[in-house]
Amino acid sequence: MVLTTYLSRRALLATSVALAASLASPPMSLAQQSPIRIGLLAPLTGIGGPYGQEEEQAARAAVKIINDAGGVLGRSLELIVADDETQPTAGVAAARKLIDVDKVASIAGVWSSAVALAVKPITLEKGVLLTVNGSADEITDGDNKNLVWRFQTNGKSWGEAFSKAMAKDGIKTASILVLQTPFTQSTIQPFRKSFTDAGGKVLDEVSFNAGQPSYRVEVERIFGKKPDAVFVAAYINELSAIAKEAFRSGYDSKIYAFGNAAGSNGQFVKNVGAEVAEGVHHTQQVPVGKSAAYSRYLKEIGKPDGTIMTFGAQVFDQIVLTALAIEKAKSTDGVRFGVEVPALVNADAPSIGDPAEALKALRAGKPFRYAGAASDFRFAPNGDQTDLTFGHFLIKAGDSKLVGEIR
Q1: How many Å separate Cα 293 from the centre of its chain?
Q2: Which of 25, 41, 107, 254 is least buried, going by the fewest C-beta atoms within 10 A?
Q3: pTM
Q4: Could you tell me which of 206, 204, 210, 189 has the C-alpha nearest to residue 114?
Q5: Residues 218-244: pLDDT tens digits?
Q6: For position 264, what pLDDT does the model report?
């Protein structure tokens, strides 16, 4: 049996007009309804595992604030999270999925310098914004088409900060224990130069690999020469093992370490105990002054004022500035909104730290500059941050105490 439906000429005309209208209107309607996807490529596992959850929590906090403020271009943000496993191969595979399958407008949160260097060529080819936490100097080398922005200090600045911290503490001799990664290695030569230029003497340097069953040989060689201080350029797991070994062996040279290793929201102290951690120094680019953005970040994740969560703060800034740049450019095309990123922090205008207030000012056409959560930074033309302040911390009775600022 065949069922035939007859339409009057008037009905057919009405249907045709309605169809034409529906075909003409979907792009605008759909664009308003569909979310803008933002990728987070985080080290949820691997050597960077202790920091991956912090990054994801920060990214979700920033997305929530932006969405609660009306979203971007009338659309909500949707966070797509991928694990790079702190490995370049896994990072590349995850980045390709974020770009080709999930269709993200940007990729944030890349913690490992090795992963950032592996992913960067792909994002440049695809025209996708890449915001990173990796510190290796090479990340911002070359023509990055305004698509690569670093939200962490580079290795040179961090190495120099350690030298300045030691100089303030009256350190005359130092030795170096360095993990073999692009970032950690990038801090060593700048530290050496700055330290020796200030009159200090480097006694020895030893490189080591992650995951060694023991660090006794390295510790005995470096600490056995009794330097005033040892610069341990490593992440939390290696630092924990080295600090325990030095303590067991009775060495009393002061240890200076990265804030993301010795600070780590108290994880280092939990790993080694308050007695072993006592007297360990660490430096970190942090909002040591009052920061509206950092306060808003901590409030959103339910942490008390004074909590140090540097990587999270950096990712928070990455998501906020990505949203502001999209709103300013009126586009989700990375090439078009990437160029807007530096002006949002470099402008000679009143500072705003609250993301919702920044969005409000942007929509109203009022001049402003975003004052970051991680630091009240500016951008250099190559994508590096400038005007950074480092906090110099000392672990006492199980807590990290701010003892000074380094610029």
Answers
A1: 15
A2: 25
A3: 0.82
A4: 210
A5: 999 999 999 999 999 998 899 999 999
A6: 66
Residue type, 178: V
Q: What is the DSSP track for 336-362?
A: HHHTTHHHHHH-SS-EE--HHHHHHHH
> What would the two tokens of residue 1 be?
């049996």
Q: Tell how strand 385-386 and strand 378-379 pair up.
A: antiparallel
Residue 367 CA to residue 363 CA, distance in Å, equals 10
**Residue 173 — φ and ψ, nearest 5°?**
-125, 140
Q: Residue written as tokens 């205008």?
A: 349
In angstroms, the CA 114 to CA 119 distance is: 9
Residues 6+ apart with CB under 8 A from 366: none
Read off the amino acid at residue 75. R
Q: Are 230 and 223 in contact (CB under 8 A)?
A: yes
Q: Give the least confident one: 48-57, 175-184, 279-288, 290-299.
A: 279-288
In angstroms, rounded to a whole number, what is the distance separating the alpha carbons of residues 367 and 55? 30
Tokens, residue 250? 């009775």
What domains are there in the chain, each with its CATH number? 35-153+290-386 (3.40.50.2300), 155-288+389-406 (3.40.50.2300)
Distance CA 399, CA 112 (A): 27
- Residue 14 is predicted with a pLDDT of 44
Residues 6+ apart with CB under 8 A from 134: 110, 111, 112, 113, 114, 115, 116, 117, 150, 152, 182, 183
pLDDT of residue 155: 85
Nearest-CA neighbor of 233 among 195, 274, 186?
186
For 122, half-sphere exposure in the C-beta direction (CA atoms, 13 angstrom radius) is: 19
- Segment (H or E) for 208: strand 201-208
Cα–Cα distance measured from residue 7 to residue 154, given in angstroms and rounded to the nearest whole number: 70
Taking alpha carbons only, the member of 173, 144, 138, 131 closest to residue 156 is: 138
| Residue 1 clears pLDDT 70, i.e. is over it | no
Report which DSSP code applies to 263: T
Per-residue DSSP letter, 183: H
**How does pLDDT run across 321-358, given as a tens digit for each residue?**
999 999 999 999 999 999 999 999 999 999 999 999 99
pLDDT score, position 333: 97
